[in-house]
Sequence to fold (497 residues):
Amino acid sequence: MAKCHRYDVGSLVLDRPTTTSSAHSSRLWSSFSAASFRRLIFDAVSCGASSRYRHRNDPTDAPAPAPARSTVKQEKETPEKAKPKSEKLSDLLNLAAEWSEAESDAVTKKKVEALEKLKRVARELQVENDAVEMRRAAASDVRLLAKEDSEARATLAMLGVIPPLVVMIDSDDVDAQIASLYALLNLGIGNDVNKAAILQAGAVHKMLKLIESPNSSVTEAIIANFLGLSALDSNKPIIGSSGAIPFLLKILKNSDNTISCQAKQDALRALYNLSIFPSNVAYILETDMIPFFFNTLGDMEVSERILAILNNMVSTPEGRKSISSVRDAFPVLVDALNWNDSPGCQEKATYILMVMAHKAFGDRQAMIEAGVVSALLELTLLGSTLAQKRASRILECLRVDKGKQISQNFGGSAAVSAPICGSSSSSTNPNLGSKECLEEDESMMSDERKAVKQLVQQSLQSNMRRIVKRANLPQDFVPSDHFKSLTLSSTSKSLPF
Fold:
């Protein structure tokens, strides 16, 4: 007979009956297994926990007596009524659903209120009467709403606030002009669609009408808008051809304190954006921007940005020709190579020199005369990785050019790679021949090569002094004449000329 503790699956023990009643007990086994296990598993799952733990943890409950055979049959015929279940899990689920629904309702209500506010601002901007103060206040609201909210920028543009803001630029009220300019500036932050829409609405030409405004705040707002709008590639040619480049250059040349340093930085960055587009190079060359830039180089606050603009200019033949025509252009660039505290300036200066050296022979000669070789040699040892690579390429170009020049001086003979020194007298006295050869070499050297040779000799002598000091040799140690002859004759042949 089956011994079963109700609601206790773990304590269920089944005793096989004797063989005399095997058929009847087999039917009892089947009916008990199907009914009891289904009921116990259903109760455990629906209540969230097994009921056997409650049975074991409750000391007042007494073990249920084993049901009689007739009782088991009755259970089979009449199913047991469902016991009341725990509603903790369902309560938690209902609570979470209610909280989520409440939160969703709050978020939705907040979004609806924000949308209504944006619609109200858009309506106030589009009023047709002479309510200047209302439009000015609405423009100020657009400026604040679009300052840090990207969704608000897109929504306001879809509500049609850009055209009335562009119209407000022509207002006689200075405060309305400033409010509209900064509202347009914030609408274009990180939104290329709005930048294109602002330009298509005619904002650039309206801004250029205000460049002569005596109010510096209006001028700075216009500069900031040019910077933001010029970041979009499709806007670059339109702004460049509109006449904004001379205005921005005028801001850079402003020497009084009416224009802030931030406005000048914005103007320089806007010029950099415009110089990226090749068609704007022609408009830049119509001004005296490149000579002004070379005269301004040395001011570390703007030098790197100026060199970046010159990097864009040197990519076109017209830009290279304009740079070459500037007096002292190469000495200024060579001086920039020595700015060890500004690796960015060194990298950009070497790029300009590298492009110029690969394009024109006359530029290479001007570089050599400006003393570029010694600066490049130092840069290959002390510069950044990019500056070292560019310096090495320039030196390679100068070396190839120097080799061609020597070949032409010797009649184009490939066999004459070095002058044949000595005569019949030199064969009898080799030391005398070598000295005569060195004198002939020095007479044929250019001033630049002599300077580099002297630099190398000084470096070798300095290294020799360090070796002597580390070897604990006497301080009055003097290198032999043979060592001096080696340092004089062999080192300069490996220089990149």
